[in-house]
Amino acid sequence: MKSAPIKPLLLGLAIAAVTAACATTTSPTGRTQQVGAVPQEQLNQMGAQAFAEYKAKLPQSTNSSQTAYMRCVVSAITRQLPSGWQTGWESALFVNKEPNAFALPGGKVGLYTGIFSVARNQDQLAGVIAHEIGHVVSRHHDERVTRQMGAQAGIGILGALVGSQYGSGAAQTTQQLGGAAVQAAFLLPNNRAQESEADIVGQRLMAEAGFNPEQAVNLWQNMIAAGGSRGPEWLSTHPEPQSRIAELRARAADLMPVYQQAQAAGRKPSCG
């Protein structure tokens, strides 16, 4: 049986209800955000559900050395998170040649094995992981869900949750996973403001954990080189690469004292 279409008035009331439930807050960099359409507990449950689906349908690496390496870096970074964000983090390494990673509400981190082709030491891997965790602690998923619910009255929430995946590799993976909600999640990238913010938050986080913030510059240089003169296709939704590198380099100089203080305090990760 066909369901009746939602009448414009009801749709408007639904959107109004969602908007009323939202709150205005300030991000870690001082940016105004609209969040709160979904309670944090529910966001965490959605993140866990999406992560479980990844693990059920994508092959996980059996390389115990790489898995331990990844978990060591994740642990070093999450120990530096604000109170309330530190515990319960879970990570998984998926077999995929794309150099990519993601993090989800509820403390979930996923890496593709292809990330090791561009993150060539522990500091560069920390740059990747801290950036992705930066999306979570900056409440970018909450912001995206709130925005999507406001526009679509709650349709396709999961599609806003999982985080950005890019290019032909993303298309291939969505075929593996199937399902309209998950496909939307893969194809919907973070916007450039969120990417820039995750750069700022992540680079400071890696320095506080005792990883060299200068290596974030080398990481992005490697990423651009991996895709030739134009860079990988999945970088197209990110800030302009050379501008991004210049900003990372400038911040690294400011963060070197933070890194040195972390090292002096005994935060000297030895992950691989």
Automatic annotation (TrEMBL):
Residues 66-251 form the Peptidase M48 domain. Keywords: Hydrolase, Metal-binding, Metalloprotease, Protease, Signal, Zinc. GO terms for molecular function: peptidase activity. Pfam families: Peptidase_M48. Its cofactor is Zn(2+). One of its GO terms (biological process) is proteolysis. Its EC number is 3.4.-.-. Binds 1 zinc ion per subunit. The keyword Signal applies. Residues 1-23 form the signal peptide. It comes from the Bacteria. Belongs to the peptidase M48 family. This is Beta-barrel assembly-enhancing protease. The gene is bepA_1.
